[in-house]
Amino acid sequence: MSHEQLLALNAMKDVDDAKIEKMPIEPETENAENIEESVFEGESNKSTYVRANGTKFNPFDEEWMKENQEEIDEQLKNRTPSDNPTDSFEEWRKRFLSRVEKPTPPEAQVDFLQFERVKPHGRILCWMFVKEIHCVAIKRAFGIQYFRSLLSILSLPFYDVASLTKLELVNRAKFEGATLFERKIKFNKRSCWKDESYKPQFPIYQQIKFTLDPTTNTARYKLVYQPTKVMDKIPLMPMKQNFLNDMRLGCYDPDTHEAVTVFNGDRENFRMLDPMRSVNMSANDISKLFRHDILYEDNDAHQALKFQHVACYCFTEEFMQEAPRR
Fold it and tell me: What top-level branch of life does the organism fall under (predicted)?
């Protein structure tokens, strides 16, 4: 981070969210006319997860799910499930999630995601500062992207960073740098990205060959971006071992998009943003997750069931932290 960038970030200490909300929003020119697609030149290799002992795992992503869906569904169908509470999910949400209704952010004037035709990441659901590995995770419809530094987030396309400004950063560690960065990009978005040192990636418009219409003198274009600077190797965070013995239920938090484990008694809930963390659980804990259905709202089914499917796979394939079950 340069000296100028540090000064700009520190200036945000005197600017709170209320001041930012009062700022007039300078209009942006978003013209999607004649755009055919968005491409990322030289897209980096697929990220991998790495255990502390160096063992690497490919993400259990959408492609993995398609390959294993039939087997996982069969395993879930034939298991002996745990006794689930009779309370409705709505009752459990009110009791444990304490959801606060928030206004739905307005849709972007132009949906640039529609032009991502090759391996789209989907819309952004939430973003979180992950204290354990000191990075930022951005959860999307089709996966999670990890960023080693705050500035590397600015390698995302401008419309993705604009989406982040509409979402509250989950920062339970209260890391000041992440809070100031959140304020800074909100501030810069409202001023139409005038601060070049905190400006996201904008594309190069490239004319597609043989699309020029000599009559109208118009052509079709593609938006060309440089690769997003995501982490190639994602550390798999260590997990407590054998800590789910008094698990009561699992549910999906629609606000933070985490799986939440609720325990009997007054014990604090356990939250997990990334289903891949299940790989580091003990055999006993994986067994608990496997036998418990996860509760969720209908429109969260796709994301919530990812946690259920990964737990099922880890259980049936003995894919866990400690020695396999005998």
Answer: Eukaryota
